[in-house]
Amino acid sequence: NVLAFGSDWRWIYPADGLGEGWHAVGFDDSTWVSGPGQFGYGDSDESTVISTDPAPRPMTAYFRTTVDVTDPAQFSGVLGALIRDDGAVIYVNGVEVARENMPEGPITPTTPAVAGIANRADEKAPVALTIGSDAFVPGSNTIAVEIHNANRWSGDLSFDLELLGQP
Questions:
Q1: 32 φ, ψ (degrees, to nearest 5)
Q2: Above 90 in pLDDT, residue 19?
């Protein structure tokens, strides 16, 4: 298990979003708040509530954590299970490795998810994704995720992630 659901992450939910480089390995996130997943607001199933502000809220929330991988070559790949409401972009060591419910092309702090997810079962169902083991290095690895709502008036946002090394 590379990363379990409910793991601790550093997070920030800024009004104006973040600029370039926030997902890079050396980025200083020491002023960010930390807590365990599941993150979000509006569904009453969050371990860490990231907002109680009334709408309109920021479009994008940002999350970072590190994981230790002794030998990534032992994996044929890494299977991810992503809980996201509405869209997500995932980075490993500063490189984008997956998108879910997000448009193609450059992503900014104001880029909306492709579609809002309103069905509660869909909000809770983990989305499967595969990450190549070559995204990881021996030792410490930075995982960064941005979660985008479909609009700033959304009443909820959710995020958690599990990563399992595959033999």
A1: -75, 155
A2: no
